[in-house]
Structures are given as structure tokens and as C-alpha cells.
Amino acid sequence: MPARTTAAWPTVSAVAELRGLLDALTAGREPAELADHRQACCALARTWLECLDSTFHRGRAASAPPAWIAQRWTWGTTPHPLHWCEIPPAASLDCGASAALGRELWSRRCPGVRAVQLVEHHATPTTACNRDGLAQPWAEGRLAYHEAIGREQDGCLEIWDPTDSAWLPASRRGASTRTLSLRVRSRGLTILRWSGHRLNPGAWTVLDAVSQALPADAQAPNAASAASAPAPARSQKP
Amino acid sequence: MTTVYCSGLQSGCGPSPGLGVARSLREAFEDLRIVGVGYSSRAGGLHHPAFDEVWIERPWSELSFAAHAQAILERLDAGGAWISGSTREARWLASALGSREGLLSPSAVALERIDASPAELASRLGLQSPPMISALADDYELNAFGRQHGWSVWLRGPGRPPVRLVGWRSLENARAHLAGAWPHARLRLQAEVDGTAESVVFAADRGRTLGARHMQPGIAAPDGSAWSGRVSDLEAALPGIAGKLRDELSRAAWTGGGELEIVRAPDGGVWLVAWHPRFPAWVHGATLAGANLPAELIAAATGRTPPLTAVRGSEFVRVVTDIPLRALLPLPAHAPAASGVVRAGNYLSGMPDPARRRSGERLVHERGAPLEPPPPLSALLDGLPSAGRTPHAHRGDPAARWELLATGIRRAAGSLPVKIAYSIKTDPDLDLLTAARSHGFLAEAITAAEMGWAREVGFTGEEIVLNGPAKSWGAAPIPSRCFGTFADSLDELDGLAELTRSGDLSARYLGPRLRPPSVASRFGVDLGDFDTFSRLVTALKDLPEPQSIGVHFHWASSAAGHERWFETVDAMIEWARALQDLSGRPIRCLDLGGGWHPDDFDTVLLPRLPGLVARCRAQLDRLDLLVLEPGRALVQPLGIVETTVLEVRETGDAREIVVDASLAEVPRAGVYPHRILSCTARGWRHWGHGPDRVVGRLCMEDDVLRMSIAVPDEIRPGTRVLIADAGAYDRSMAYRFGRG
After folding, report:
1. In angstroms, what separates the C-alpha of B574 from chain A's closest C-alpha?
2. Which of B195, B230, B388, B429 gives B265 a disulfide partner, CB atoms 3.0 to 4.6 angstroms apart?
């Protein structure tokens, strides 16, 4: 019998269940990478994208993120691996594609750019499938796997969400979307600080939101219902 | 029982804060008697059940300020409290009532502290201040400020709604709207800063900060105001500001609510755009997030216990609901405004449009003294013969200016060969074309007629650059030889390439006019479109092998703003480099235009040209020529229109003169300020800033040659005056109208 919470705070078993769901969502997941045909098609596309970034970035600090990506491509499911030459004609990009593209472009002009993987909790009701009617292996109930970009400086991490074109707030208590768990890919072994948390490079860090901040109505579905649980709505884009 | 008066009850799109204040107070103190104060029965908030009673005064334009002040005083003396929901009302209260028990608004001293220097205020708060200039500056400086920032500029001032300016004429119109109603002393032009708007609400009691919260807007209403937002702790959102704001409120001995309007730039910089002496409209959103600042304010003022406020969420959204009108308070029947002018925004009757009237204050516009013209203009005037009949268009000798510019350009270009192209469209006068040729300039033609004029004065085909859209000039075919030609589209580039292959066209440089994706323009090949970019690479690759390739870029710096112009040129150079790398064809020539104002060309472009050339050479390693098109910078200062005053009209404090020149002779009069001069005992002087205007002879409403200028006392009918800066398009676009 799966655990259920009846009080305002999740029970110990509900937390364990959440952690299980987090593990299920993140198991074997690596940050999306852009593939290259090593032919003229990808060289042309890559150059064009780099010029676009350079144009829209003019007049801003080198450390400023590629905010233009979300203005150019709406969110939508993207087949992976995604090649450079498939980006210009794409009508939409998913979070992995946006993050991979943003990471490539941002790192050309700014050191310390890292891949960031997250699991987020969405408070709003969800729908069964996305607009394309495809399965969503990145979502479990109100939990969704997400990718973003980190910028590491002096041991501190800032996280840019290229899909929403916004910095991930350091604190999102009470907000409709919360980060439950994240992993930053860093070449170094230095522990990074983000939003009061200490992040071990390469390892998933489960934030205290899981055990402390989830109200009863925001808990994840139980294991039995997870398979048929409604998936995140359009606004909860990965 | 305490009675609290809340004003600012406009509750439509872009609402005032009065209703939010009342709702917050009602939640905290059930026993309060809350009175909604409106200056029009159109203010929808009056009908909300949060109010126990309403007080509707005469419209601001009809109000007796003395009587109104007395009425408010009586209520305050009776133990009432007043929370103003209007910037202008708060300012009026400070001047009319001073600091009073129960008046929960900042004092005049506190307002002076925040008004005195916006830049210093921002600095004290640890924030950046947008570039700004006093609206009292000379028109020439104001126009230069507008050009510098690409006319992404606001006209702002304490207590009045900001006006977005889009060009010189819009500034003149805004000033005319304010004339006689509001002093310019504190008005300023403020450059727009790039970023996202955020807001800070705060409240203080006699300098003691009662609370502050930050709000990041989510959904925006059509007018740009926040329709939803996320409320957060101020220190978390803007580290370091809370303490500085506390200090500022303490030093100002601030009482009342307030709002900081800020912009967060993409690079993290935070700009202070405005400080308002009243709560923001989203004040109840802060209450929902646990910070009931209106209630804290009342508690501090009345000695009540501050309320405990439940946190119901950190985000809020507005919804539109229907509520019944109060009995005996019907809305007035709709009638069109007599003036036909519809005003909008926060001042739609919640408070009247306050810019139209200010209590009891009579304004006297200061007349700026005539000014000595700068040396180049002085030199031009010295050699000017008097015209027999007016209006008469003089044209000065270009030699001195052109020599100076050509030397400066060549020196700036260093070792990179440079050619200057004379844009015939700026003034097709044959004497000027002849002078251009004698100075070694190229001629840039955009029509068959222009090409014909160039040939007429001796330019050979190899000295002509063909530009502009669609060079299939009908009966006049493209010449077989030219210095360079730049295609405005891919289709045109294909056609020019075909002519080159067939031997019908021989251009030393051939290529596209480029349009980087950050430029909104109808001209050039759109690099922001991947298919177009891809086709352009192929087209360049396919050009006949011996053909040298050039690229052209033209964007008016006055429309772009200086920094953005340079940034965009840098971006364009990078695109050119990409085209070179992908096509395998070197870019040999860069043809650069810019619509530069003469002053900006001399003081902005030339000093920065060496750096630009260095960046060109770094990116385009095969570049062997820079073509520079100064455009109107070459000829605008050379034109002077001499005109005669026909009539002098005195109207109150202002003076209007009618001259025999008009838009027909100065068609660009509304585009930028032309200096107007008259002869004094000390020589020619150009007129200063003032309340007067100069209008033309035509029966056309827009025949206004200058506004906000000081016509000297000695000007009489028959006086000759000069309109300077009337070369370039004022000459090439001049037309015959009303002259038979």
C-alpha cells in the first residue's frame, strides 16, 4: 500500500516515495548534447547560430546569458540527438536542446558555464500528455525533469533557465515551481554553493524542499497511480 | 473610531493604489471607517464595498484648492488619517498642508530630497541611474541626447506621468502640452534602459521604516503595468538595498507609502527609474504575501497594535470582477471630450490629468538669452551675402568643412585605404557634385537621374557607387562600369551576378547590403533568416571568380543610438567574416553609411573610427578598402534659409512670429531643431530656449518651424532672420508650394 499524507507536511514514507520518484526520473539521464554531422550543413548552422548570439549579445557583459533563445524558439518536444543543422529550421526546442545550445554559445564568451539538470515540482494541475500527444518520460505526476545552464564563479553557481529565459531564483518558497533536486556538471571537484545549498559536482543533490517544504496538496502521486498520473501542463516545460 | 481617507481610486487597466490600500486596511482593522476619495464619479474603485463612505470632489481642473485643503484639514483635525493614492495629490498635500498629524504622506522637505538629483538618489541607494538631461537644456543638446540614445527616451518629471518620446517632434509636442501648466525645471529626458521592470513597495513613519517588499511582475497588462507578480523579501531580491533604503527614509523623515520603479538589466545591473511618493497599485499583493504595509502605516500613526498578516501566497494575479454601483452614485453619461483629446493611464479621473493644472501656481517661462553661434557656423555667416528677396536658400562653401573631414577620416583609417562617397540624394546640386569630385570623393547614386547628374559633372562610371533598392532603372539601364554596386536583396544580387557573368556589368566591388537581425529595416539581405543566409553564402560562392566582393551596411545612427550603432556595425563585421569563411570568398570592401548628424559625425564617429577600422581589419583579413558615406554630415551645415518676419503676435507670456519661409523651404523642420538667428549689435546670435514659436507662411497646420524658442524683443515685421542647419535633405526635399 503506497504511503499517503494526510497532514500538512509529508510523512516520512511520503518523502521516501518522493526520493524514489526522483531517482526514477534521473536514473541514467545525462545532459543533452548537440551532435555534429562534421559536414557543411552543421558548419553553416553553427556559424549562423554563433553570429546570432553575437549580434543579440552586443552591448552586454560577456557573462550575460543567451536570453534570445527563448524568443526565437518556443518550447516543444525535440528528437535527440539533435544536430546543429536541425536547429535553424526547428519550430521549437525542448529544455535539453535549449540548454545544450545555450551552453555551447555562452561558453564561447564566458568561462565557467556548466550543464545543470534539475527535477522540479509543479503545483498546478497537469494534463495527460503534451500538445504533440507524445509520451513524456521526463515527467512523473507533478515532478518534471528539466535542464538549464549554470555559471560558476568563485565557487558560487548561478542557474539560467534558457527555456523560460530567466534566472532560477535562489529561493522559490511559495512559488508555483520548486527545485527538488539538481546536478551540476563541473570539471572541478570544488563544492559549489547555490541558494544556500552545497552541490557536489557530478552528483545529484536533493534539496531540503523534499522533506520540509512540500504541502500536502503538492505531494507526488503514489506509486500505483504514477503510471496514469497526469503529466505537467504546457507551462511546465522541461 | 479612526477614519481613513484613501484617494487614487481609478481601478481599470493601469490602476491607482487606493482600492488596494483600502482592502488591506479592511483586512487588518474591521473597525476602521474607510472613506474613498475621488475627483470624479468615473473612478470605479469608489463603488467597492471596502469603503464605508465615499467623498467625491470636483474634478481637479475645477477644484478650489484652498477650500479642498481646508476640508482635508478639518478631517485631519478631527482625528482622521489620509493616505494618498496619487503622486500628484501627495505632492500637492505636501505643499498645501505641510506635515500634519494624520497626513500619511511625505513632507515637502522629503520630496525635495528625492527630487533634487535623481542620479545622486540612485547612488545613495546603491543603484545605477539612467542617462538623463534636464529638459531646460538647449534644444541642440536635447536633440543630441535623443540621437545618442536612438530616441529611446522618456520625458519624466516629479509627479507627472512619463511620456515616451520617439523623435524630436514628439518632444516638442510634449513640451507644448505642458506649456503653461507645469514647469520644466524638474523635467528631464531619461534614456530608456534595457531590462525587466521590477517594483519595490515600502512604508515609513517619520523616518522609521515599517516594511518593504520587492515585486517581480509576471503577466503584464496592455499598458505594461503588472497584472501578476511575485512578492519577495527585498534583501533577497536586491541584496544591500534594504539598509540603504532604510537610511534614506530615515534621513528624509519619510512618512507614508512609496514605490521604487526599477529595471534589472540582463547583466544584473539595477537601475532606479523613478521614486513615487505613494503606494504602488499592487500594494494589496504585498498584503497577500504577508506584508500589510497600509495597515502598518495606520498602526504606527494611530498607536494601534500592528496587525498579524497571514501569508496567502507569494504570488498574486489581478482579476476583473463586476460589482454593483453604489446607490445614488450613478456613473455620468458618456460624452465625448470637448477637446476630442482622450487621456489615459493612471490619471483617468482617479486623479485628474494633473499635468494640466497645478494649484495656484503661475508659471513664468524663462527666456534664454541669444547665444553666440559656434565657430563653423560663425564662419559660414561671415561670408553670407544678404538675399534680395526672401525666402532664399543660401549654400555655404563646402571646401573648408570637407577638407577637414577628409583629412580626419583618412587619418582615422590609418593604413587601410579609405574612400569617401558623396550621397547625391543629400543634395544633388551640381556645384556640390563638382566640389565632391574635386575632393576625390566617389559619387553614390540611387537612381538613374542621380547617376546622370554625376556623369554630367565628370564622374566616370568607375567613380560611381550604385546603391538603393532595385537597380533595374527602367529606361536607363545599369551602367556597364561602376566602382561598386550593392544588392538590396538576394534576387537583385543574382541579377547583378548574371550581368557580371555576361559582361554587361563591370563593378570593382559587388556584393549585398547586409541587414543584421537586430536591425528593423526594409533594406538589405536579412541575415536573421537562415535560408536567406544560406542562399547568400551560395550566391557569393557562385560569383565569377575574379569579382571582388564588398558588403554594404547603412543604418541611421540617430535612429539606432550611438552605442547601438557601433555594436551593430561590429556584429555586421562578424557576419561578413562568417560569409567570407563559409563562401571561401574574401570580403575586400566594406561600404559604411550611417545617416550621421554632422555634430555626431565629427565628435562621435571620427574619434572612434580608428578602433572600428582595427576591428574591421582583425575580422576581415583580406579587406583592402573602406568606403565611408558621411551622408548629410557633409552638407547639412552648409544650408541656411534667409527669411523675413511677416507678423509678430503677442499672446500672454508667449510670442509667435510668422515668417515668409515655410516647410516648403525647410521640410525637415519637425525632424530636428534648426538654429534660428538674428543680427544684433554684436553680430549674429541664435535664439535661446523659451515659450515662443516660429511658424511658416503656409495654410498648413504642420507648418511650424520651431517651438519652445525665445524670440528676442527687437524682432519686428520686416526683420530678416536666418534658419541654419538647412542643408542636405532640407534642400533636396524642398518643394514649391504657395510660390506659384
Report:
1. 7
2. B195
Report CB contact under 8 Å: A44, B537: yes
β-partners of residue B706 are B694
Average pLDDT, chain B: 90
Please give the C-alpha separations between residue B477 and each of B357, B451, B483, B595, in angstroms, as whole numbers.
63, 11, 16, 28
Strand partners, B256: B204
Question: Residue B375: what residue type?
Answer: P
Task: List, for residues B198-243, the tens digit of each pLDDT value.
Answer: 999 999 999 999 999 999 998 888 777 889 999 999 999 999 999 9
Comparing CA positions, the residue from B508, B474, B511 lying closest to residue B489 is B511
Instruction: Tell me if A55 and B311 make a contact (CB, 8 A cut-off).
Output: no
**Which member of B236, B265, B267 has the closest CB to residue A170?**
B236
DSSP E strand stretches across B240-391: 256-264, 270-276, 315-317
Taking CB atoms and an 8 Å cutoff, what residues of chain B touch A175? 230, 314-315
- pLDDT at position A233, please? 30
DSSP tag of A235: T
Spell out which residues of chain B touch residue A160, defining contact as CB-CB under 8 Å.
none
Which of these, B562, B564, B662, B553, lies nearest to B616 by C-alpha position?
A: B553
Please tell me the distance in Å from B305's CA to the nearest CA on chain A: 27
B224 in contact with chain A, both atoms CB, cutoff 8 A:
no
The model's confidence at residue B382, banded by pLDDT at 50, 70 and 90, is: confident
Among the residue ranges A185-199, B276-290, B368-382, B517-531, the one predicted with the least confidence is A185-199
Chosen for mutation from B198, B216, B518, B532 (greatest number of chain A CBs closer than 10 Å) is B518
The vertex-A127 CA angle with A121 and A129, nearest 5°, equals: 105
What band does A223 get if pLDDT is binned at 50, 70 and 90? very low
* A206 contacts A147 by C-beta, under 8 angstroms: no
Q: What is the DSSP string of B523-587?
A: SSEETTSHHHHHHHHHHHHHS-TT-EEEEEE---HHHH-HHHHHHHHHHHHHHHHHHHHHH---E
- Contact criterion met (CB < 8 Å) for B582 and A44: yes
| Cα A198 to Cα B445: distance, rounded to the nearest angstrom | 65
Q: What is the pTM of this model?
A: 0.83
| Tens-digit pLDDT profile for residues B653-692 | 889 999 999 999 999 999 999 999 999 988 999 999 888 9
Q: Among A89-93, B331-335, B536-540, which stretch is predicted with the lowest mean pLDDT?
A: B331-335
Of the candidates B314, B530, B571, which has its C-beta nearest A54's C-beta?
Answer: B571
Residues of B in contact with A89 (CB under 8 A): 530
Checking if the pLDDT of A21 tops 60, the result is: yes
B532 CB within 8 Å of a chain A CB: no
pLDDT at B545: 87
The answer to whether the Cβ–Cβ distance between B267 and A64 falls below 8 Å is yes
CB–CB of B630/B401 below 8 Å? no
Report which of residues B425 and A8 the model is more confident about: B425
